[in-house]
Specification:
This protein is an alpha/beta fold and 438 residues long. The protein has helices at residues 85-99, 102-118, 131-141, 162-176, 196-208, 221-231, 235-241, 259-267, 276-281, 289-295, 314-329, 337-343, 346-351, 385-391, 419-435, and strands spanning 2-12, 20-29, 32-38, 49-54, 58-62, 64-69, 121-126, 144-146, 148-151, 185-188, 212-217, 249-253, 271-274, 298-301, 369-373, 398-403, 406-410, 413-414. The structure holds zinc ion. Residues 68, 70, 216, 252, 304 line the site of zinc ion (ZN).
Length: 438
C-alpha cells in the first residue's frame, strides 16, 4: 500500500528529456516518488493507498525553485520606489535597520515565503540578516530553504562585526548541515559591500562544510565602475582572481557581462540566477541569458525580494526570461519554453547540489510537486502544457502544493499555519515601517 496516489494527472515531469505524460498516475511512499505510469498501462489503478487524489484537469509538475529571494523584505514592499539600485539601497538599509529584529524578520519571512509557496515554489534560496528566522519560517510552512550567514562590511542590521558574521556563519553550518530541508551556504552580500579578504574568509567556511556561496554580482553599470575603480577589474574577474568562482558559486543577476566574463563563469561551472523583474524595475538592465546559454552556463531563476520587484512571482519571471531575449535579439527561437521551465526546476536543483533528489518528477526523487489548475478560461484549450506553463500560467492557478509527499497547500490555502495571524502582525507593524523613512 502506498501513502498517496495521484490519478489522472497531466504530468509535466521536467526531466532531462522534458517528458510529458497525459493521464498519468504517480504513487508516493515515505515522501518519495515510487511509480509513475500512464493510465493506459493500468497497473497502479488497482493498487491501494492511504489517500488517492484525482488530478483531472490539473497539470502536475515539480515544485518551483526560487534561487534568489530576500523573503522578509516583503515587509517593505512598495516603500521605496522608482530609484536606481544604489540610491534605492541607501533607503532600504535605513528602513531595515529601523524595523528588523529576529522577531520581525520571522514575520516578514513567513510573509515572503508564504507568497512563494502559494505560487508553487517549494524551495527558496534566501539571503537575509537573520537566516535562522528564515529557516524557522520555512520549517513552519513546510518548505525547503537554502540560506546561511550573511557578510556585510558596513554597519548592518544588528550592529554585528565581521567576527560576529564569521561565528554566525560557522554556527549555521553546525546547526543545519544534516537537515533534509535546509541547504546551508554563506551569503556575502556583494563585492561592493564586502572586502576581498572577507569574501575569501566566507568562502573558507563554505568550503569547510561543502556549502554554497551566494552573492550579488554584476547587477548594475555603477557597480561595475565602482569595482573597476577599487580593484582594477570587473566584478566577475575580481571574483575569479580571488578564487571565488566554482561550482558552488551562485551569482545573482549577472546583468552586465562581457564575452570573456561569460566564458569565465562557464569555465568555472558557476551558477547564474536571472532576476528579470527586479532588474527591469530598478532600471539595472537585461541580463544576456541567451549568450550565457550559448557558452554553457547553468542558469536559474529568482524573484529577488518584494522590495525591488514588488512581486514574488516565478511565473512572471519565467515569462520574462523566455520573452526578453526574443525582443532583444529579434529572434523568437533564441530561448525556448522548455529551457526556461528547466531554469525554474531542474537547474535550481542542480545549483543546490540536489539534482538527484529534486527538480523533476522521476521515480526515486523526493515528492515535491504542485497542481496547476487547467479549469480556467486561459487554460482551455491547452495543446502544449510546457508553453502553457511558461507563457500563460499565473500564480493564482496553483491550487495544491505537496512537499515531501505532504500537502502544504490545499485548494489555494496554506495548511501548515494560520496566515491570517501573520497578516495581522504585519498590519500592526506597518505604521512603524512607513515612519522609518520619515
Ligand atoms: Zn538580491
Amino acid at each position: 500500500m502506498y501513502d498517496l496516489i495521484i490519478e489522472n494527472a497531466n504530468l509535466v515531469t521536467c526531466d532531462k528529456n522534458h517528458n510529458v505524460i497525459w493521464n498519468a498516475s504517480m504513487a508516493i511512499t515515505d515522501g518519495k516518488i515510487q511509480i509513475i505510469e500512464s493510465n493506459s498501462e493500468k497497473k497502479l489503478l488497482d493498487l491501494t493507498a492511504s489517500q488517492k487524489i484525482d488530478a483531472r484537469n490539473k497539470i502536475v509538475m515539480p515544485g518551483l525553485i526560487n534561487m534568489h529571494c530576500h523573503a522578509a523584505d516583503s515587509l517593505f514592499r512598495g516603500l521605496v520606489e522608482e530609484l536606481s539600485l544604489e540610491a534605492w539601497l541607501q533607503k532600504v538599509w535605513i528602513a531595515e535597520k529601523a524595523i528588523l529584529t529576529p522577531k520581525t524578520t520571522y514575520t516578514g519571512s513567513v510573509l515572503g515565503l508564504a507568497e512563494n509557496l502559494l505560487s508553487g515554489v517549494t524551495s527558496v534560496m534566501d539571503m537575509f540578516w537573520y537566516p535562522n528566522e528564515a529557516v524557522k519560517a520555512a520549517n513552519d510552512l513546510g518548505m525547503r530553504i537554502s540560506t546561511g550567514g550573511i557578510f556585510f562590511d558596513y554597519p548592518g542590521i544588528g550592529n554585528r562585526s565581521h567576527e560576529d558574521f564569521l561565528k554566525e556563519a560557522e554556527k549555521f553550518f553546525e546547526d543545519y548541515n544534516s537537515n533534509e530541508s535546509v541547504f546551508p551556504g554563506v551569503m556575502p552580500h556583494g563585492t561592493y559591500t564586502v572586502s576581498p579578504e572577507h569574501l575569501k574568509e566566507a568562502k573558507k567556511i563554505a568550503e569547510r562544510h561543502n556549502g554554497l556561496y551566494h552573492i550579488h554580482a554584476a547587477e548594475t553599470l555603477a557597480e561595475q565602475s565602482d569595482i573597476k575603480e577599487r580593484y582594477g577589474q570587473s566584478v566577475i574577474r575580481h571574483l575569479h582572481s580571488n578564487g571565488l568562482l566554482d561550482q558552488k558559486a551562485i551569482l545573482a543577476h549577472c546583468v552586465h557581462l562581457d564575452d570573456a566574463e561569460i566564458q569565465l563563469i562557464a569555465d568555472n561551472e558557476s551558477i547564474v540566477v536571472h532576476n528579470p523583474m527586479s532588474n527591469l524595475k530598478l532600471g539595472s538592465g537585461i541580463a544576456p541569458i541567451h549568450k550565457m546559454f550559448e557558452a554553457g552556463v547553468t542558469l536559474t531563476l529568482g524573484t529577488d525580494g518584494a522590495i525591488s520587484g514588488n512581486d514574488l512571482d516565478m511565473w512572471l519571471t519565467m515569462r520574462l526570461a523566455a520573452s526578453l531575449p526574443k525582443g532583444n535579439t529579434l529572434d523568437p527561437k533564441v530561448v525556448n519554453a522548455k529551457t526556461v521551465l528547466h531554469m525554474a526546476t531542474l537547474n535550481g536543483a542542480k545549483a543546490l547540489g540536489k539534482e538527484d533528489k529534486l527538480g523533476s518528477l522521476e521515480v526515486g526523487k523526493i515528492a515535491d510537486f504542485i497542481f496547476v489548475d487547467m479549469d480556467k478560461i486561459h487554460a482551455v484549450p491547452v495543446f502544449d502544457p510546457i508553453t502553457h506553463l511558461v507563457y500563460s500560467t499565473c500564480k493564482s492557478d496553483i491550487s495544491d502544493v505537496f512537499i515531501g509527499g505532504q500537502q502544504v497547500v490545499s485548494d489555494g490555502g496554506i495548511t501548515t499555519l494560520n496566515i491570517k495571524d501573520i497578516l495581522e502582525d504585519v498590519r500592526k507593524l506597518s505604521p512603524q515601517i512607513v515612519a522609518s523613512l520619515r
